[in-house]
Amino acid sequence: MSPDRTRVLVAIAFQILIASALQADEPTTQLWATGISPASAVTFDRQGTAFVSNYRRNGTIGRILPNGTASIWCDLNKIAMGQSDSRPTSIAIDTEGRLVVADAGNGRLLRIDREKNVTVLVDRFDGLAFEQIQAVALRPRLGQLAGADIAFSATTQRTGKELETSLFAFDLRTATVRQLPFELKGPVSATFSPDGKTLVVIESSQNQVWKYNWDQEGEFKLLAKLGGNGNPLDAKPLGICPSNQLGSVFVAMGHRQEVIELHLESGQTLRTIPFFGQHGVACAVFGKSLYVVVQEKEAVFRLPLSQ
Q1: pLDDT tens digits along 139-169
Q2: pTM given for the model
Q3: How many distinct structural domains can be found in the chain?
């Protein structure tokens, strides 16, 4: 065999070896739960039990045990004090295992304990009822998902039929509501950084991600502009959650069919995770896996994460 042919075969073998290694390291998306319709949100408690909004039908909260057993945990239309148009769009869990739910259909922020007792935390501001509440984020304090603050987005009516979506904060200690200095131009998702110092907000219709220093109570700063190619629908960021690394968040990019990891200081994309032609609308991290709610599949998919 000639030296040139030997070099070619060695090069080909090396390329095959590299490709095989890369393929072995590539994470595989796994179907984890189905029946999420209309798809909305997923969150986890400390034991690894997941709660999903709109499980099997609109207005419900579903529960998925660590062993994979899934069922409807509660129906807000039956337990939420006579209201019949409940649409839970966002959910979070505090350290006592209670769910905090954004009920968009009735413009209320609810808290539900494990016995399924419902408390209305917020339903109005300055004497006016909220039209909708779309998103909720609990502020971590000392590493615990509890604390005295909840951030949420809500739509209010100012004059006539003019609607406006803004961000609000609810103080659990004083049961008071204040409006944050930011008005939105599109649906929003929100999360806190793990240290509770930074609120990160998605402005979907503008393809923008904003951050806010919670302790300093200054102005919102643009973290990242995610649109491109001159098409306002190119990106459509929809869901957001803290990553499994400090200082970054995951953003589900609905129209790009991928999940990206954003650095909280620079706004740079640290990595891009293709989601195989599926549109993620919400996400959560538990353990070493990323969970993404996919609207058209009415399902939650799990993606193992490398450390």
Answers
A1: 886 544 445 689 999 988 655 566 788 999 9
A2: 0.84
A3: 1
